[in-house]
Design goal:
about 160 residues, alpha/beta, Tetrahydropterin Synthase, Chain A, six-stranded mixed sheet, about 25% helix
Length: about 160
């Protein structure tokens, strides 16, 4: 587990969406939905001029990206054999399709980690990073992704 002097976390919730894991032999192969939520853990080499690791109000672009991807959307793996069918339903405005490499919570946690670090690296020039994310599909099931970006030097 990494050791940082200053950390904080931010939680976002209320992203109702549905997905399916078409390769799964059980009920997960059927379309089903959850209201996803996400937590991000941030670290900083030093606090900013306001005394923050990350100013939460500056995370609006990340929040918008989460909303665009997960708010009332249908998530599908790019290799789903019914992809052309889902695309037709999207074109007919029956669903709001998002094609992903993998819709599972583990892959989602890694994806949102990359989004957060893209934003932070560009904006803060290495002062901050996201070192952990959690993608939660409900109160019982969640996945985390932990990795300190190689470009981040805590001290």
């Amino acid at each position: 587990m990494p050791v940082f002097n200053h950390t904080c976390s931010k939680h976002f919730d209320g992203y109702p969406c549905c997905h399916r894991q078409w390769k799964h032999p059980g009920h997960c192969r059927y379309v089903h939905g959850y209201s996803r939520s996400f937590t991000f853990w941030f670290a900083a080499s030093h606090l900013d001029e306001y005394g923050f690791v990350v100013d939460f109000s500056s995370l609006k672009p990340l929040e918008q990206k989460l909303s665009n991807q997960f708010d009332h959307t249908f998530l599908i793996n790019g290799d789903d054999p019914l992809l052309s069918y889902w695309k037709k339903l999207h074109e007919a405005e029956a669903l709001d399709l998002r094609v992903m490499d993998n819709v599972g919570m583990e892959s989602t946690a890694e994806l949102i980690w990359s989004w957060a670090n893209s934003l932070l690296q560009e904006r803060d020039e290495g002062r901050t990073c996201c070192w952990r994310t959690e993608a939660r599909e409900n109160g019982f099931n969640a996945a985390r992704f932990d990795l300190t970006p190689e470009w981040f030097k805590p001290i």
